[in-house]
Amino acid sequence: MGRLYGQSPAAGVVVNGQTAYRHGSFYHRRVEFDNALSPVVGTVDLQEVPGDQSLSRVFIPVTPEVFTHDDDGNLIQDGVWNYEWDAENRLRAMWPRPEVAMVMLGSGIEYWPRIEFVYDFMGRRIAKNFFKSQTDPATVTDKNAGAIVWAANGYQQRFVYDGWTHRVACQRAGQTSWHPAWRKTGVFVILTANR
Questions:
Q1: Which is the most buried residue in 106, 123, 135, 150, by most CB within 10 A?
Q2: Distances (CA, A) of 102 to 55, 96, 118, 137, 147
Q3: Which DSSP string do the residues of the chain spell out, in sequence order?
Q4: Residues 171 and 156: beta-carbon distance below 8 Å
């Protein structure tokens, strides 16, 4: 399901070579991928006739997707991610399962991501750090094997609160200075970094 902007209702839409159903500015076309044995990264080719063409990649986990939980009921593995929780049942880190990373790398994605979360003494999430693998995940069978070198050359986010009200998020890429990512109503705060 998608929506076209600026196109006349008479314009055609073709998805992966097949004409899509149109209703006003909305369109729909079912696209199928075989994910019965392994996860897949599929390509969706969208053409507006007359108009633009765009290629998108979609990730689809293996089906059936298996969910694994720990003794506290926290999700520790699904069809895409491994999850790590702290003693307070807060999400601490997440990274793709090795078989998912292999599919992602094989489709042209150049790194294996890891996302880590940091909380303050009140349990509020104050940071989210996005890391990229510096080594080839194809040689690693498990995240704890020690062969993956994580580098903080992704992006980092910091969150500012007023009590329990989330006011602003700031982010930076690599070692650049902080800049506001978005803000909610109330006080606007800009964080700076001296690193």
A1: 150
A2: 21, 10, 28, 7, 15
A3: -EE-SS--TT-EEEETTEEPEEETTEEE-------SSS-EEEEEEEEEESS-EEEEEEEE--SSPP-EE-TTS-EEE-SSEEEEE-TTS-EEEEEE-HHHHHHHHHTT----EEEEEEE-TTS-EEEEEEEEESS-GGG-SSGGGS---EES-SEEEEEEEETTEEEEEEEEETTSPPEEEEE-SS---------
A4: yes
Give the CA distances from residue 182 to residues 113, 128, 188, in Å, rounded to whole numbers and listed in that order.
Answer: 23, 14, 10
Provide the whole-model pTM: 0.68
pLDDT category at 184 given cuts 50, 70, 90 is: very low
**Beta carbons of 43 and 36 less than 8 angstroms apart:** no
| Half-sphere exposure in the Cβ direction for 10 (13 Å, CA) | 0
- In whole angstroms, what is the distance from residue 139 CA to residue 24 CA? 50
**What's the sign of the alpha-carbon dihedral 155, 156, 162, 163?**
positive
How far is the C-alpha of 144 from the C-alpha of 93, rounded, in Å? 13
The one-letter amino acid code at 36 reads A
pLDDT of residue 141: 52
CB 106 within 8 A of CB 96: no
